[in-house]
Amino acid sequence: MKRRSLREMAVRVVLLLIGLWIAHLGVTLFLQTNLGSDPFNVFVQGLFRAIPWPEWAGMTHGRVHLLVSLLIMVVLLVVDRSYVGIGTVLCMALGGPIIDVYTLWLAPFLNETLPLAVRVPMLAVGCVVAFAVSMGAIRFLMDYVKRHNFKFFGVYRIVLGLIVLAVAAITALA
């Protein structure tokens, strides 16, 4: 692995943080319009709504996002620690809290009680943001696959599938 200078690492972390704030603005716009979302956040939203969280936990979409991210981080650490770097940790740890901050800021102005004519343009903005971020993510994924193999993604999909089945079974029995 190429050793990076402290300055280069700092620039990369700042760019990552900016990207996280932009990407999660798009996620929050999707969630606040209540017109749909990306698959990961639909999964998180389903967990948030379906599980009877204790009142004292004060669960929010962002906190459930953080819990799911931490679970994924544990899987990453078990499967292959080389997948975990500072960017992985920052993305996993900050995504949920950023969604909660945006929700706090936007909820008084943008929510599902607004007319559809207002929510649809907000959804369009969310789509544009999601598209731009997705293009960067796809580029990263393609570069990654060129240098590595699909082992991690296979294990990740199996583990995530088992989690989804477990949650579905638990909520069906409740």
Describe the protein's architecture and organization.
This protein has 174 residues and is mostly helical. Helix content is 78%, strand content 0%. It contains six helices and no strands. The protein has helices spanning 6-33, 39-50, 61-79, 86-106, 116-147, 151-173. The protein is globular and about 50 Å long. 17% of the residues are buried. The mean pLDDT is 82.
Quick summary of this structure?
The chain has helices at 6-33, 39-50, 61-79, 86-106, 116-147, 151-173. It is mainly α.
* Quaternary status: single chain
Tally of extended strands?
0
Unreliable segments (pLDDT under 50, ≥5 consecutive)?
Answer: none
Number of helices: 6
Q: Per DSSP, what share of the residues sits in E-state strands of 2 or more residues?
A: under 5%
Average pLDDT number: 82
Helix percentage range: over 70%
Order of helices and strands: HHHHHH
Give me the Rg, rounded. 18 Å
Protein structure class: mainly alpha
* Spatial separation of the terminal alpha carbons: 48 Å
Q: What spatial form do the alpha-carbon principal axes imply? A: globular
Largest sheet: none
